[in-house]
Amino acid sequence: MTGGCDGPSVAAAIRAVAAAIAEQHVELTRLDREIGDGDHGENMNRGFKAVVAKLDADPGMTPGAILKLVAMTLMSTVGGASGPLYGTAFLRAATTVGDAGQLDAGAVGAALAAALGGVQARGKAVPGDKTIVDALVPAVEAAESARGNSVAEVLQAAAAAAQDAVATTIPLVARKGRASYLGERSAGHADPGATSTAVILRALAEAAKA
Amino acid sequence: MTGGCDGPSVAAAIRAVAAAIAEQHVELTRLDREIGDGDHGENMNRGFKAVVAKLDADPGMTPGAILKLVAMTLMSTVGGASGPLYGTAFLRAATTVGDAGQLDAGAVGAALAAALGGVQARGKAVPGDKTIVDALVPAVEAAESARGNSVAEVLQAAAAAAQDAVATTIPLVARKGRASYLGERSAGHADPGATSTAVILRALAEAAKA
Amino acid sequence: MKKIINDPGNVVSEALIGFAAAHRDLVRVNFGPDYIVRADAPVSGKVAVVSGGGSGHEPLHGGFVGAGMLDAAVPGPVFTSPTPDAVLAATQAADGGSGVLHIVKNYTGDVLNFETAAELADAEGINVSAVVINDDVAVEDSTYTAGRRGVGGTVPLEKITGAAAARGDDLAAVTAIAQRVIGSVRSMGVALTPCIVPHSGEPSFVLSDDEIEMGIGIHGEPGRHRIPMEPADTLVADLLAPVVEDLPFERGDRALLMVNGMGGTPLLELYLAFGIAAGLLEKQGIEVSRSLVGNYITSLEMQGMSVTLLRLDDELTQLWDAPVHTAALRWGM
Amino acid sequence: MKKIINDPGNVVSEALIGFAAAHRDLVRVNFGPDYIVRADAPVSGKVAVVSGGGSGHEPLHGGFVGAGMLDAAVPGPVFTSPTPDAVLAATQAADGGSGVLHIVKNYTGDVLNFETAAELADAEGINVSAVVINDDVAVEDSTYTAGRRGVGGTVPLEKITGAAAARGDDLAAVTAIAQRVIGSVRSMGVALTPCIVPHSGEPSFVLSDDEIEMGIGIHGEPGRHRIPMEPADTLVADLLAPVVEDLPFERGDRALLMVNGMGGTPLLELYLAFGIAAGLLEKQGIEVSRSLVGNYITSLEMQGMSVTLLRLDDELTQLWDAPVHTAALRWGM
Ligand SMILES: Nc1ncnc2c1ncn2[C@@H]1O[C@H](COP(=O)(O)OP(=O)(O)O)[C@@H](O)[C@H]1O
Ligand SMILES: Nc1ncnc2c1ncn2[C@@H]1O[C@H](COP(=O)(O)OP(=O)(O)O)[C@@H](O)[C@H]1O
Ligand SMILES: [Mg+2]
Ligand SMILES: [Mg+2]
Ligand SMILES: [Mg+2]
Ligand SMILES: [Mg+2]
Question: Do C237 and C280 touch, CB atoms closer than 8 A?
């Protein structure tokens, strides 16, 4: 999958995301127990399990259709803050890629940017608020910088940037989401949502390399 | 106080009982936690503290009046099973000694027997039921055997017998009182009420010696 | 031990101050001796229903004082029955001239103190009758022992008896209704955790993280046996089977099913347990025609639950449905 | 972790089965998506009031569905807000043609999911209005943050708003009453122990035996600061002062005082705390004209409590007093 990705490879990448979330869900929940309510891993895992079940049901979808299915399924199974946020992210990504049969690196970068736009439109967070946005903004910027490279390279750059961003959320005092209720006590812990964003991007990047 | 006891010496003996109960109340409660509801020491301590407060108020009472005061005060402050039982015991003892100004050894023996009668009339327990009765029956018998000796010797005999009896309650399966709800699980622990009876008689005997 | 209290010795009286403040329209609270009576007591011409016992089981009994249920409640210290003088004072305050029924849970302390109070009331010319509730099937019944404990069945007993008194039954009739409830109600409970009596500061027993106590009473006493933690399906079945078998309840019976929390169990779990119990009863052909789910007779902060089943006929159903207005149980008014 | 559950993943749906069985006369429960509606929904011509949120706060919200309060409640997984499709389905089931008010507690998840549901309902031609309750004074308020949490104030909000809808107010008027309650209610809570979410199996935070968390929310989140355990007099004063100062409540105000248990605190302690709070308010010249004591908005088995104060005028008092018939709150009918 060095050129572009078709429906089946997008489906495989989403399955890889589901597997990564399943593997990390205990850690994501642990992070959320520190500064939230201890359900983020459980929420994401419930959502992506449902996504996989639906992918199984219909193998012949376009990339856009798959992203839309992911969006709707997350929206109706995750709940919490992350459900509508990731739901909107995938929905905007789906809209951006339209009904193309193949996604090239440019489309992937555009989809990522659209996803970020969706999260910000819905959640009103800005960088530094200790949220998903803190991982997505550098990811989108890195993808932008990697423009012209392969899908795998673009996603690789995004994933690496998101991963680095997770650590930058540690000292932040949360201003959005449940962690904001803790005030100063929210500092000193990585943000669960930023962490799950890094997990998702890493899994997508690995799948694109394969 | 080798011959008989007058009002002030009975009052002093009751104060000694209150002090002994205060000293042992944590242990009595611990015993009651094993096979009851963990309040026996607290109950008895509340009662005898109230008794002492009332003794302070009226120093010039006869032995019978003091025993009646103890009875009424225990009845209205102890609650639980032990309140009415000890209350009735002291009430019967008071009735038996009447308005005599002095109690001799015979009167003390008769008072003990009357106390036992009161506990049995009220509580319907027989020896072996793992109750106060298991300490009082041997105490009354020992007092009976010591008849003709001094008050101190009679009480000494009763106290020693009650003390010995406490250990005999350990293997018993309770058939009366709260411990009976435990069935077989009540075996293996000394009965709190039998123990408090031994504490009371020991304190009376020590006071009589002094 | 962390509790929202000041001096452990004052817990009951300080809680009564709050109870009085919260329910001024409903009750009057007397201090020293402590008792709670209906604000409009005595209700002239009505049989008065009075109960009481150790505190720590809230809302029982004080939360059931009011129109259609108890006329007075006598709270003792935590887990310790009240003294005869307090019961007498409450009896006098409640008596409307048609006699007083004492509802006594079968514990030696409660029985003896209420007995003495009844003798004293009798001497004062008050007509007192008493019933003793002993619905706990976890305890073996025998004439040689203290018999069974009074537990969850106390709640429907007080409701139905109060309704009989409210409709104008005389003392003998109210007593007969109470006896009928006692004859038709059975319960059993389980503890997941112990409770801590304030003045003692020590847990009533020690359970490891995978053990539970089956057949507990309501005073933090140890139960009949200790077993490994079970899933709710098994746990509820294990509680329900002896309850059903004891009376026995039979196919075609209608019943009130009460799933009661011991104080520290989330309502979510109680409803889950209720669903299981109702399903099991349905399979046995026993119709759950009335239900009650919540914390009604508790053991301080203990985690656990009890199941109570009361066989209903038309009259008992009517009396259960009759209007009631108390702090903890209210409908129809 | 010992809980009366089967599979941690099925806790909410199994509890709903029990809730449906226990309250057949009162509610209908839909499974997949999960929601609870009044048995007689939709009530034609009446504004419908719908709320929801994560489970684990029982009796909130399902226990408040019925005449005079909520038309529907949407329970999410434990401590996780429900999804838009579930909220939409409940909204549709409740809508009697006069529009629907969403009562949303101020958590990002709840706000976003209800927002999406409202957009979807709007697309279906249902007139939806929403209010967001944010009464927790433990959280600093700022336009740059998510703002304050919705906690105890949700209970009187749902009661009073439901009463406004029941008396026939239109959607704008019901919304205005709800906003008035939100503007007049403040709360603060304390935890003595954490709670354990079933699927996680771990305590939400760890406290030593002499520490408490001040300023907690209702999801087992850590609070604003940790302090040594205090006697009840000090603890209640520490909770009440920021609540009174924030609005601020003033001499001569009349108020509803709610002392709410977090799930694992004995009623005895809640009444004790109520007495202290009522006494403190009296000293400040604030009249406690209405009161509510008990477990109404909980965090599973957490030990602790919250204090909620709502300023009342004649209209809000009338709406509070209006008849209500739900599983957890009932009077006048
Ligand atoms: N307004 C927001 N914008 C972006 N991300 C947010 C926002 N609010 C919360 N989040 C993210 O959601 C994560 C928590 O998700 P989750 O635990 O699933 O939901 P909840 O907080 O409702 O329990 C946080 O770690 C944070 O990254
Ligand atoms: N029927 C009875 N006859 C004699 N003693 C009894 C009887 N029932 C209980 N007791 C005694 O009472 C003791 C318990 O007293 P206490 O703990 O104060 O009351 P409660 O059991 O009501 O908590 C038991 O240890 C037992 O010795
Ligand atoms: Mg969370
Ligand atoms: Mg005891
Ligand atoms: Mg006791
Ligand atoms: Mg959550």
Answer: yes
Q: Tokens 């339209």 map to which residue?
A: A98
Give ranges for CATH 3.40.50.10440 in chain D.
Answer: 10-179
A78 and D219 in contact by Cβ < 8 A? no
Contacts of B39 in chain C (CB under 8 A): 77-80, 197, 199-200
Taken in order C192, C198, C204, C206, the sign of the CA dihedral is positive
Per residue, the 3-state secondary structure of chain A, as one string, reads CCCCEEHHHHHHHHHHHHHHHHHHHHHHHHHHHHHCCCCHHHHHHHHHHHHHHHHHHCCCCCHHHHHHHHHHHHHHHCCCCHHHHHHHHHHHHHHHHCCCCEECHHHHHHHHHHHHHHHHHHHCCCCCCCCCHHHHHHHHHHHHHCCCCCHHHHHHHHHHHHHHHHHHCCCCCCCCCHHHHHHHHHCCCCCHHHHHHHHHHHHHHHHHHC
D199 is catalytic: no
Element (H, E) at C180: helix C171-184
**Exposed e or buried b per residue across C67-99, where buried means at least 16 C-beta atoms within 10 angstroms of its C-beta:** bbbbbbbbbbbbbbbbbbbbbbbbbbbbbbebb
**CA–CA distance, D76 with D228 (Å, rounded to integer):** 34
pTM of the model: 0.94
The sign one gets for the Cα dihedral C113, C116, C118, C124 is negative
Structure tokens at A22: 């399943």
* Superfamily, domain D10-179: Dihydroxyacetone kinase; domain 1 (3.40.50.10440)
CB-based contacts of A23: which residues, under 8 Å, 6+ apart?
none
Yes or no, beta carbons of D200 and A42 under 8 Å apart: yes
Q: Which of B37, B73, B184 to mutate to test the interface with C (most CBs of C within 10 A)?
A: B37
Q: Is A192 in the pocket of ligand 1 (CB under 6 A)?
A: yes
| Tokens 């929601």 belong to residue | D35
Q: How far apart are CA C83 and CA B43, in angstroms?
A: 11
Mean pLDDT of B5-12: 95
Is D124 exposed, middle or buried (CB count within 10 Å of its CB: 0-12, 13-18, 19+)?
Answer: exposed
Q: Which of the four pLDDT bands, split at 50, 70 and 90, describes residue D201?
A: confident
- Alpha-carbon distance of A62 to D198, in angstroms, equals 38
- CB of C29 closer than 8 Å to CB of C36: yes
Please list, residue by residue across C272-311, b when 16 or more beta carbons sit within 10 angstroms of its beta carbon and e when fewer do.
bbbbbbbbbbeeeebebebbbbbbbbbbbbbbbbbbbbbb
Residue D328 to residue C294: CA distance in whole angstroms: 9
Domains of chain A: 5-209 (1.25.40.340)
pLDDT at B42 over 60: yes
Domain spanning D185-324, CATH class: alpha beta
Q: Residue with the nearest Cα to atom 13 of ligand 1? A: A193
Residues D245-301 pLDDT 10s: 999 999 999 999 999 999 999 999 999 999 999 999 999 999 999 999 999 999 999
Our answer to whether residue D219 is catalytic in this structure is: yes
Interface touch C197/B39, C-beta < 8 Å: yes
Interface of C with B in 206-245 (CB under 8 A): 217, 219-222, 224-225
> In what side-by-side order are the strands of the sheet with D48-55?
D27-30, D35-38, D72-78, D48-55, D100-105, D128-133
| CB B134 near ligand 2, within 6 Å | no
A51-70 as b/e: b if 16+ CB within 10 A:
bbeebeeeeebbbbbbbbbb
Q: Give the integer Cα–Cα distance in Å for B29 and B33.
A: 6
Q: How far is B116 from A62, CA to CA, in rounded Å?
A: 93
Cis peptide preceding D33, ω within 30 of 0 = yes
Cα D328 to Cα D26: distance, rounded to the nearest angstrom: 11
Query: Tokens 């129109």 map to which residue?
Result: C67
